[in-house]
Amino acid sequence: MKVAVVGATGLVGSVMLKVLEERKFSIKELILCASERSTGKNIIFNNNSYKVTGISDAISNKPDIALFSAGSSTSLKYAPLFAKAGTYVIDNSSAWRMHRNKKLIVPEINASILNSGDKIIANPNCSTIQLLLAVAPLHKRYKIKRLVVSTYQSVTGTGVKALNQLNDEEKGIKGEKAYPYQIYRNCLPHCAGFSDDGYTKEELKIVNETHKILDPEIKVTVTAVRVPVEGGHSEAVNIEFENDFDISDIRNILDKTIGISVQDDIENNIYPMPISAEGKDDVFVGRIRRDFSNPKSLNIWVVSDNLRKGAATNAVQIAEYLVENVLNV
User: Fold this and answer.
1) SS (H, E, C) the chain
2) Domain with CATH 3.40.50.720 in the chain
3) CA distance 58 to 299
4) Taking burial as the number of CB atoms within 10 A of a residue's CB, which of 38, 55, 83, 237 is the most buried?
């Protein structure tokens, strides 16, 4: 395959390259793109050096697949140009997620809806991906009525500027800030901008994307919190089902779900944590217990590396599906 990575020098772009390398994705030609200030830089991939080029040059090379992680404005401007050149674009920004003619994909859940006409494919929000991977098999078995989600999101979900702020504050260094307040030793109930109804855009992304991918009838409410963790998002999820459930069956379903790793041994203090999810592609689920305050309700704790399954790995998995099932290479 001829593959382009747009935003190759960014946090997610660099992880995309790492995942492509680890999963041995078949690449005949690799095209690395970034902003003008990064053009000309060299990046090592599979022990070979590649020079970062401009996006216009990448379009003219007509790659088979382009993995985008360069922000919504870049995606809105350039993804259609790649698509017009015959490239399949897998976009990690929010630009196309809720576009009614663009598909929003978590491969383990709904990759089968993709076809050769899908030239621009949207990667969901990182918090949505880990949430839905955990709840989708439970919805299939017991039908979910309502989700109440509280997220505890790492600073890498904001980007390198936020990571630098956390590190600077930990060292007592004054530097550029990504957040309106200190993040070190603090929690901010403020992920992305606020909408008129008082919810943040991050919270609404989870609501809207859950409806688009899983089921528009599920009632969803979210509170998203930024925490002083370098990498890995955590979620406390309360699930109300239409039907009663068996707790041992819940554990069995999750244990058999591809991409899920159950860590639920409280006697030995085994439960998911961002520090142990770092660098891994699975979504980790633990603290599985019945909600005694509400009939037919369940509590679970969900953790995942937001730069991997929450972004890069999910995008590469979409590319793998295209190669195996759509492009017939």
Assistant:
1) CEEEEECCCCHHHHHHHHHHHHCCCCCCEEEEECCHHHCCCEEEECCEEEECECHHHHHHCCCCEEEECCCHHHHHHHHHHHHHCCCEEEECCCCCCCCCCCEECCHHHHHHHCCCCCCEEECCCHHHHHHHHHHHHHHHHHCEEEEEEEEEECHHHCCHHHHHHHHHHHHCCCCCCCCCCCCCCCCECCCCCECCCCCEHHHHHHHHHHHHHCCCCCEEEEEEEECCCCCCEEEEEEEEECCCCCHHHHHHHHHHCCCEEECCEHHHCECCCHHHHCCCCCEEEEEEEECCCCCCEEEEEEEECCCHHHHHHHHHHHHHHHHHHHCCC
2) 2-124+311-326
3) 46
4) 55
56 phi/psi in degrees, rounded to 5: -60, -40
Express each pLDDT in 127-186 by its tens digit: 999 999 999 999 999 999 999 999 999 999 999 999 999 999 999 999 999 999 999 999
188-212 residue pLDDT tens: 999 999 999 999 999 999 999 999 9
Overall pTM surpassing 0.85 (yes/no): yes
Give tens-digit pLDDT for 58-105.
Answer: 999 999 999 999 999 999 999 999 999 999 999 999 999 999 999 999
Can you name the CATH fold of 127-306?
A: Dihydrodipicolinate Reductase; domain 2 (3.30.360)
Which residue spans of the chain are classified as CATH 3.30.360.10?
A: 127-306
Catalytic residues: 126, 233
Where does the pLDDT of residue 111 fall: very low under 50, low under 70, confident under 90, or very high at 90 and above?
very high
Per-residue b/e over 34-43, b at no fewer than 16 CB within 10 Å?
beeebbeeeb
